[in-house]
Write a structure and sequence with these properties.
Strand content: 15-25%
Structural class: alpha/beta
CATH superfamily: Response regulator
Helix content: 25-40%
CATH class: Alpha Beta
Number of helices: 5
Shape: globular
CATH topology: Rossmann fold
Number of strands: 5
Strand order of the largest sheet: 2-1-3-4-5
Distance between the termini: 22 Å
Order of helices and strands: EHEHEHEHEH
Largest sheet: 5 strands, parallel
Radius of gyration: 15 Å
CATH architecture: 3-Layer(aba) Sandwich
Length: 166
């Protein structure tokens, strides 16, 4: 079943009509796994980056509610998780307490390393600011059946904004 035929989910994100603002950071060869999100009516994709420089700019400029990332960008350089850590870390060290940490959906076939990195990052954020809401994250394997629905459900689960009443 495609995402377009799924029942509508009501969010309370910061995008148009409460949609979660989603940034995508994945290797260009892996973008096919998130294609259906780009024009989906329940999310507002604010940008797609396929390298670390582009993803850094996207995070700094758009301040998304949720990021959907892969485990690598496909070349040398930082991973999407590394870029996210660096951007949030630099904001926190600069005293920025207003930019919320986005929810994270890792769409990858490397489950163990991705989840371990997210756990470590979450613990570091909590140590830095114990009053901040804990990092919300989920992993969606690239080979999941009904990947479209799994991605949308994961975005809903990690959106740091509360879900609005139906």
């Amino acid at each position: 079943m495609s995402l377009a035929s799924q029942p509508r989910i009501t969010f309370a994100g910061t995008g148009t009509q409460g949609k979660p603002r989603v940034a995508i950071g994945k290797a260009s060869y892996a973008l096919n796994t998130v294609e259906s999100l780009i024009n989906h009516p329940d999310v507002e994709v604010v940008g797609v980056a396929t390298d670390s420089d582009g993803f850094t700019r996207l995070l700094q400029e758009q301040k998304p509610d949720v990021v959907v990332i892969g485990s690598i960008f496909g070349g040398l350089g930082e991973t999407p998780m590394g870029v996210l850590e660096n951007v949030i870390s630099s904001l926190r060290r600069a005293g920025d307490t207003t930019t919320k940490t986005p929810g994270v959906v890792v769409n990858s076939m490397y489950t163990r390393s991705s989840v371990d990195a997210l756990k470590q990052f979450s613990q570091w954020l909590n140590h830095l600011n114990p009053t901040e809401k804990p990092l919300q994250y989920q992993h969606v394997d690239s080979f999941e059946e009904d990947l479209d629905t799994q991605l949308l459900n994961a975005i809903k689960a990690v959106d740091p904004s509360p879900v609005s009443p139906q």
